[in-house]
Amino acid sequence: MGIEDFGGGQTAQADVLVVTTNDVPGYQVTQVIGEVFGLTVRSRHLGSQIGAGLKSLVGGELKGLTKTLVETRNQAMERLVEQARARGANAVLMMRFDVSEAADVGTEVCAYGTAAVISRV
């Protein structure tokens, strides 16, 4: 597995900037649109469940589950950006992830933040 299997984030060409901060240096917030979120729920497939069970006997990273969680977070973030773009935003401020179990059938991942319009100062 390569580095892309264990990370995420935006490309330099992204039209909606997503940051975890309140503001963006060199920009001013000209309009706050409001909360946006992207949500996905993923179930674990049987193969990764068995692999995780065996791996837990000897310890170490559960790479299959790590890769699945990265893919899930990236999908939630893509949905967040789609919602922000559809509402006219060019930025999402204070982006966060929330992860929880969904009715014992999978993992729910929600990316959320504040959609805004920003412009260079």
UniProtKB/TrEMBL annotation:
Transmembrane segments: none annotated. It comes from the Bacteria. SUPFAM superfamilies: YbjQ-like. InterPro entries: UPF0145_dom_sf, UPF0145_YbjQ-like. Belongs to the UPF0145 family. PANTHER family: UPF0145 PROTEIN SCO3412, UPF0145 PROTEIN YBJQ. This is UPF0145 protein ABR748_18885. It comes from Streptomyces microflavus.
